[in-house]
Amino acid sequence: RKEVEQDPGPFNVPEGATVAFNCTYSNSASQSFFWYRQDCRKEPKLLMSVYSSGNEDGRFTAQLNRASQYISLLIRDSKLSDSATYLCVVRSNTGNQFYFGTGTSLTVIP
Amino acid sequence: SAVISQKPSRDICQRGTSLTIQCQVDSQVTMMFWYRQQPGQSLTLIATANQGSEATYESGFVIDKFPISRPNLTFSTLTVSNMSPEDSSIYLCSVERATNYGYTFGSGTRLTVV
């Protein structure tokens, strides 16, 4: 079983729509959780960390459900510029190993 | 957060040759990480580069194929040796931004082996 699993999509949504991505992880003792954004032909960039209490940054909301071992990312009022691949990243509890999901592709359509 | 300069940004190489990728960080970091991202795939950790000791390689990656140097706390190189077309990929170096704050990545090296 993979450490981190994501629905690869693609998700094609109209501008202004709300879209949500989920990601599951296999190690219940995982420490830290992140969402990264990767634009085509660019390196991944940190979008937001995911805290146990959930956190919000503008149009973006991240949630962690430890009982079910998944994290989610909600994007409200989608913009064309949100089109990218969103990577779920989980840090193990045993060291510095970060596990990356395969990414979820989002295209926001005018 | 750290700023990472990675070069070359891209290269096209003949099979059987080797390419060395450099990463320079603007601050001292204990560990640097080298990742590979093959087309349509997510990132796979190749090795962790520690200053003053040999790199720690992940399963499936060996030092003879991917030798790594870490001469000081701000610099590392990854060499892709005896390349084949299967090595065509994006190679990324990264450092941890701060404890539990995830990684910062270099801009990547897009390698094509012909």
Percent of residues in β-strands of chain A: over 45%
Instruction: Specify the structural class of chain B.
Output: mainly beta
What is the helix fraction of residues of chain B, given as a range?
A: under 10%
Largest sheet of chain A: 6 strands, mixed
Low-pLDDT parts of chain B are none
Give the assembly state of these chains. heterodimer
- Range of strand content of chain B: over 45%
The total strand number of chain A stands at 11
Principal-axes geometry of chain B comes out as globular
What is the count of β-strands of chain B? 11
Helix content of chain A: under 10%
Order of helices and strands of chain A: EEEEEEEEEEE
The 3D shape of chain A can be described as globular
Number of helical segments of chain B? Answer: 0
How far is it from the N-terminal to the C-terminal residue of chain A, by CA? 38 Å
Q: Largest beta sheet of chain B, briefly?
A: 7 strands, mixed
* Integer average pLDDT of chain A: 92
Q: What series of H and E elements makes up the topology of chain B?
A: EEEEEEEEEEE
How far do the termini of chain B sit from each other? 37 Å
Radius of gyration of chain A from CA coordinates:
13 Å
Structural write-up:
The complex is a heterodimer of chains A (110) and B (114). Helix content of chain A is 0%, strand content 54%. Chain A has no helices and eleven strands. In chain A, the strands form two sheets. In chain A, strands 2, 4, 5, 9, 10 and 11 form a six-stranded mixed β-sheet that branches. Chain B is mainly β. In chain B, 0% of the residues lie in helices and 52% in strands. In chain B, the strands form two sheets. In chain B, strands 2, 4, 5, 6, 9, 10 and 11 form a seven-stranded mixed β-sheet that branches. A four-stranded antiparallel β-sheet of chain B has the order 1-3-8-7, with no helix packed on it. In chain B, 36% of the residues are buried. Chain A binds chain B through residues 31-32, 34, 36, 41-46, 49, 87, 89, 91, 96-98, 100-103, and chain B through 31, 33, 41-45, 48, 92, 96-97, 100-108, 110.
